């Protein structure tokens, strides 16, 4: 047995912009155990949601995470709509798909950039983030802001996307697709990139399922699970297949997210072409009563909202289980036995969002 | 209106969870709800082929809940979180952070419902 050392990885660390701490027990250069500590930036949003009214809560849940703020609001609004028996107009459902997929695109591009940065490929990192700007422009043009767009309301959406803006979206998506093809080669074929990712942090299908993995992490291990197939919003009207890879390593997780970028571009195009004319929201009267679970597929995976209402303007309880929280047990298992140098890669390929985890 | 909701006594919880695991269910999460009268609901959510199954166990603040973390490892972090935020104790927790998981030493059970405090003008 080699000498044992405990290395604190984070909460401030060059490869990890967010404050997660992993206490790594090392035996020489191998990780024997990893102990997570979270809570450095816990914001108590679940408690705050009990104080605010049901409409104000949309803004509270959007602040669970900036990068997937639209999907957070979508899960919340869908839950309240189910409790109140509200039927959302068809056009609003398609608009929700467009914004949700824009969010997935910019989240995946941000992650691709961070991954490139972590394995030391600075120019690739810049390229990914430059491409992300194309999506941010779309967000700004359609909603007025770049990250937290606040277009969801209970009963539909707040803004419409007219024909001019639809054309702008299609043009930018064409550019983005072209740019994505250019950087794809560097990610998938570069010798040094492969050296850092292939065969690192393998998670078998069985392990991924038992540890409760969700999103790209589960799909990279061969689990065909994507909540969009449930058909919420307008996903039931659009054609797509969950992106699945079978190797379960860091490289597979990269491939899933790359392919999902193309899938999102395709879904937005389908939604624009199929979107019907009509109202974008329906009037809402009264307050919800009862309990419900609402789930959506966020860029990082399954997002679960448990909502308990009591017929007043305030909620009894709002519980948010974000995908990063679900993927942490798998991270802990994966870290056991890997080289210390691979830790940053492994931590990044779960796409950790500590803001989500410490809502 | 929760789907497939089963209300159980805490003594029957582990037996039911073992049966769900044998049946191929995935552990999604647990939710703790403060009922405001000294009782708490712990709701366990499981999923199989996109179908949710929920188990509700109602306990008092003094009662200990049997941990399911040895059945589903993923439950370790959820149970530690509930322990930190609501002050609920779990029996035989696989990894017990002893209230340090969320690093909230200065706050005692911050998610519990507390009686409203009325502040008079000028105070």
TrEMBL record, chain A:
Binding positions (Fe cation): 68, 356
Domain of life according to the entry: Bacteria
Binding site residues for Mg(2+): 46, 320
GO MF terms held by the record: ferredoxin hydrogenase activity; NAD binding; nickel cation binding; oxidoreductase activity, acting on NAD(P)H; quinone binding
Coiled-coil annotated residue ranges, if any: none
Binding residues annotated for Ni(2+), in chain numbering: 65, 68, 353
Required cofactor(s): Ni(2+); Fe cation
One Pfam assignment: NiFeSe_Hases
PROSITE patterns the UniProt entry points to: COMPLEX1_49K (PS00535), NI_HGENASE_L_1 (PS00507)
Keywords attached to this entry: Iron, Magnesium, Metal-binding, NAD, Nickel, Oxidoreductase, Translocase, Transport, Ubiquinone
UniProt entry tagged with the keyword Acyltransferase: no
Residue ranges of domain NADH-quinone oxidoreductase subunit D in the record: 120-282, 287-359
Family in the record: Belongs to the complex I 49 kDa subunit family.
Protein name: NADH-ubiquinone oxidoreductase chain 49kDa
The species this protein was found in: Caldicellulosiruptor owensensis (strain ATCC 700167 / DSM 13100 / OL)
From TrEMBL, chain B:
Highest taxon above the source species: Bacteria
InterPro entries documented for this protein: NADH_quin_OxRdtase_su_C/D-like, NADH_UbQ_OxRdtase_30kDa_su, NiFe-hyd_3_EchD
One Pfam family hit: Complex1_30kDa
Keyword Ribosomal protein: no
Keywords: Ubiquinone
Domain NADH:ubiquinone oxidoreductase 30kDa subunit span(s) in chain numbering: 8-114
Tagged with keyword Phosphoprotein: no
Gene3D superfamilies: NADH:ubiquinone oxidoreductase, 30kDa subunit
GO MF assignments: NADH dehydrogenase (ubiquinone) activity
This protein's name: NADH dehydrogenase (Ubiquinone) 30 kDa subunit
Organism (species): Caldicellulosiruptor owensensis (strain ATCC 700167 / DSM 13100 / OL)
